[in-house]
Automatic annotation (TrEMBL):
Its EC number is 3.1.11.6. InterPro entries: Exonuc_VII_S, Exonuc_VII_ssu_sf. This is Exodeoxyribonuclease 7 small subunit. It comes from Paracoccus rhizosphaerae. The keyword Cell membrane does not apply. Gene3D superfamilies: Exonuclease VII, small subunit.
């Protein structure tokens, strides 16, 4: 298993979906289920952090009258 901190949002989501799928089958032993649950919780936290980071970076580009970008301002509602 790769280090969760190095995963992109998409990679972490794919692994989280696969982990949930494994847990839903009920075929894992109790110990395996606990490890899967712990990994899934860490993946979920990582995905949430990556989303927060992305939301903080979303900015609205402000344009001058001639259409040239003049800067950025925080996007509203995030």
């Amino acid at each position: 298993m790769s280090d969760i901190k190095t995963l992109s949002f998409e990679e972490a989501m794919r692994e989280l979906e696969a982990t949930v799928g494994k847990l839903e089958t009920g075929e894992a032993t109790l110990e395996e289920s606990i490890k899967l649950y712990e990994r899934g919780a860490a993946l979920r936290a990582h995905c949430e952090a990556r989303l927060r980071e992305a939301e903080e970076r979303v900015e609205k580009i402000t344009l001058a009258a001639n259409g040239q970008p003049t800067g950025t301002e925080p996007a509203e509602g995030l």
